[in-house]
Amino acid sequence: MATYRLISFKTCPWVQRAAIVLREKNVEFDFVHIESGNRPEWFGAISPHGKVPVLRIDENISLFESNAIAEYLDDTIQPRLHPEDPIDRAINRAWTDYLPTFSGLLGAVGSAKTEEELASAREVLAKAFTRVEEALKKQGAGPYFNGARFALVDAGYAPFLQRYLIVEELGGDDLSREFPALRQWAEALVARPSTHTFPPEVFRALYLDGVKGRGGLIAKRLLAA
User: Fold this and answer.
1) Residue 31 — φ and ψ, nearest 5°?
2) Which domain holds residue 98?
3) What does the buried/exposed string (b/e) look like for 199-224 if buried means 16 or more CB atoms within 10 Å of the residue's CB?
4) How many other C-beta atoms lie within 10 A of the C-beta of residue 62?
5) Are 120 and 183 in the same domain?
6) Of 155, 170, 161, 162, whose CA–CA distance to 211 is shortest?
7) CA 171 – CA 183 distance, rounded (Å)
8) I need a labelling partner for 5 at 20 to 30 A (CA). Which of 45, 74, 100, 119 fits?
9) pTM > 0.85
10) Within this chain, do residues 133 and 168 fall inside the same structural domain, yes or no?
11) Domain harbouring 97, CATH code
């Protein structure tokens, strides 16, 4: 039986994506947490892009980039998370490819430094939410992207929507509630056990430390409180 080690920063959402897929497939694995600002020498030898996650398999294979890791796991370990229908699978992959753009728009809200920047970031994000809302309604009644069945695309979006709900709460915003299908999706993903590497309150504290470190408007509100 293969052994798996997931090289990680503690709160990296891309690592969390890989961990979710491993959990959904009931694969035993070990975490190796390293520090973003103090990456060990051995890490450079197994991560060509200098990023996490890296999945070490049997201590002699290193897979990098979270999408490649997720696809590999889905190709080799049951249960399969991608839809079986080729059209549905292509739609899922297309929305997975949108994830870096989506995560950047969410991050812009959390790191906005002025009220003007926050308003602008929120406006752009609302347009993205509209697109996602429409896609979710086409795919089914939820609570997941394809309806009742959890899929690889859900594993990709879960870490980012989890973080955004925290940012909304801190900022006193309710943008996501204007998009009921998206809000249902986000809440279902946060409620799913595989999403969580840490207990929710522990993760929240770790994530808030990171938010404060960015020095944005929400960070200032946290420090003032």
Assistant:
1) -90, 140
2) 86-224
3) eeeebbeebbebbeeeebbbbeeeee
4) 16
5) yes
6) 170
7) 17
8) 100
9) yes
10) yes
11) 1.20.1050.10
The CA angle 50-23-95, to the nearest 5 degrees, is 65
CATH code of the domain covering residue 27: 3.40.30.10
Is residue 29 located within the same domain as residue 68?
yes
Q: Name the domain boundary from 26, 57, 76.
A: 76
Q: What is the pLDDT of residues 105-164, one digit of tens each?
A: 999 998 899 999 999 999 999 999 999 999 999 998 999 999 999 999 999 999 999 999
What torsion, rounded to 10 degrees, do the Cα atoms 22, 213, 103, 81 define? 10
Backbone phi, psi, residue 167, to 5° = -60, -40
Domain boundary among 45, 76, 107: 76
DSSP secondary structure string for all residues of 73-89: HHHHSSSP-S-SSHHHH
Q: How far apart are CA 18 and CA 60, in angstroms?
A: 19
